[in-house]
Amino acid sequence: MAINAIQVLLCDDHPMVRMGFRQLLESTPDIVVQAEAETGEEAYRAYRKQPVDVIIMDISMPGMGGLAAARHILEYNPIAKLMILTMHNSKTFVTRAMKMGVKGYLTKMSEPDELIRAVRLVDRGRSYIEPSLAQDIAISTIAGDQDLIDILSPREFEVFTALADGFSVKSISSTLNLSPKTVGVHRTNIMKKLDADSLVDITRLAIRHGVITA
């Protein structure tokens, strides 16, 4: 390991996946996985306990999930260098993550060398989006396409995703550390903003925008 190796916090809820990415990252002498986390909560605690150079975060994890964890980390340290590595290739997730302050976004279908390159760029303070995703966003921007879900606040988006996944208000309040009343208010606001009449409409919208799979 090089003396000035890039220290990484690797966050994914699948041990075998983490092992594979750790081996890939540490196959080069200038990157070392300093710590691992299985949930968003663990990722947040691990970063506060021992800050690293780059955080690699999955989106779909137990508990608060990757985007919520990213938001908490960036609120704690606005200059944290954080990148997403996920199966989600939805423009909704990419644009929301980048607006939040995330520096990089790759899917798990990326080539191995692309992950190494992205980590190095993010460590240097640059942004990196997987080329195919960046192209989709550019085309949508030129065409003037607007994502309806963009009108949701970060917290509303977290509640929206959980509702679409079928979680109850009680479960969401526990996971996001909110009162059931607050979750209920968010649900009402979400349905009004999205012109949704029921939770079925919420689920359909989430599927249509690639937030969840059918």
How would you describe this structure to a colleague?
- The protein has ten helices and six strands, in the order E-H-E-H-E-H-E-H-E-H-E-H-H-H-H-H.
- It has 214 residues and is an alpha/beta fold.
- The protein folds into two domains: 137 residues, Response regulator (Rossmann fold), CATH 3.40.50; 61 residues, Orthogonal Bundle (Arc Repressor Mutant, subunit A).
- Helix 4 links the parallel strand 4 and strand 5.
- Helix 7 crosses helix 10.
What name is given to the CATH topology of the largest domain?
A: Rossmann fold
Number of strands: 6
Strand count, sense and barrel status of the largest sheet are: 6 strands, parallel
The ordered string of helix (H) and strand (E) elements is: EHEHEHEHEHEHHHHH
Spatially, the strands of the biggest sheet line up as 2-1-3-4-5-6
Number of self-contained structural domains: 2
Beta-strand percentage range: 5-15%
Oligomer: single chain
Q: Identify low-pLDDT runs.
A: none
Q: What is the number of helical segments per DSSP (H or I, 4+ residues)?
A: 10
Would you tell me the structural class of the helices and strands?
alpha/beta
Name of the CATH superfamily of the largest domain: Response regulator
Helix content: 40-55%
The Rg value, from CA coordinates, equals: 17 Å
CATH class of the largest domain: Alpha Beta
Distance between the termini: 44 Å
Shape: globular
